[in-house]
Amino acid sequence: MTELQPVQQMVSSCSGAIITSIFMTPFDVVKVRLQAQQRAELAQKCFLYCNGLMDHICKCAETFCTHTHSASWYNRPVPVQLNGTLDAFVKISRQEGVQSLWSGLSPTLVVAVPNTVIYFTTYEQLRSLFHHVLLPEQSEPSSLIGGMAGGLARVWSVTVVSPFELVRTKMQAAQMTYRELAVVLRNQVSSSGVRSLWRGWVPTVLRDVPFSVLYWLSYEKQKIIMNQQCPSFQFTLVAGAVSGGIAGTLTLPLDVIKTHRQIEIGEEMFSEVERARSSRSTWGMLEYIYQQQGVRGLFSGLVPRLAKVMPACAIMISTYEYTKKFFRSRRQLMAEKGASAS
Length: 342
Description:
Layout: H1 6-38, E1 46-50, E2 55-59, H2 85-96, H3 105-134, H4 143-174, H5 178-192, H6 201-225, H7 233-250, H8 252-270, H9 282-298, H10 302-341
Helix pairs in contact: 1-2, 1-3, 1-10, 3-4, 4-6, 6-7, 6-8, 7-10, 8-9
């Protein structure tokens, strides 16, 4: 199989991230609008807006929005009742314009696209390296190598992007200018050290790394079983959705913990007075939720999580593999032309 250059891998992952964002954002806009209609308590709390690639911490208030150029897009007054997802799609499109279904797309592209590029490019490089070092006699990497590469790639991408996530969240929370943000970050580093820029790194890694390991392990195993080392578009759609479903289900308790952590951090940043909170460890939070709600509490939100994760994974991996196949065909054609010319 023709090896792709890192730049081609980056373009492939970038294409996948953009298309996934475009497809998935309308579903979460509708979901959040339905939540805002049904839950009056959102007016006083933070909630998570997730569009398939990343999470946004939001607060229902007139002065705040998940993106800076339009206020309270998720809580706009609707003259008529929204009755379900399909009804919401139709009524929001008619009353506010079709473009309103893509509210919140900009901050996703700003952070999620670089994150996805780093993640997928690192995965490809590590997968190739591990294959050549550990299994040089085999023609194709094993599924275990895919799982190892996926886990390490996620650690690296989370580490690189974590400070930018913190900056993005602070700007959303207080609507700061870049100069004001620089002052806040300088004071934070002075008082809490450089490590404070990676706050939330541990719960993010604890959720995302197991997901990545399970996802790539399942996906690469399906490629081997179905003999799809150069996978078709149809195969990647199904395999991506199945792998995302398996990984999403098994890591749901960690996702519940990550959600609790993010909302806690968000509510601290939205507060006018900074208040210290005694934070439980990840294991402590798992025990607490289990004691309060049992196994159902640890797996709460399974259906909406799978409804988001499975199509997002299917779109992302199928677009990524399709673009890679395009570059491989192009390189092979150029090589054949060069051989015939010589």
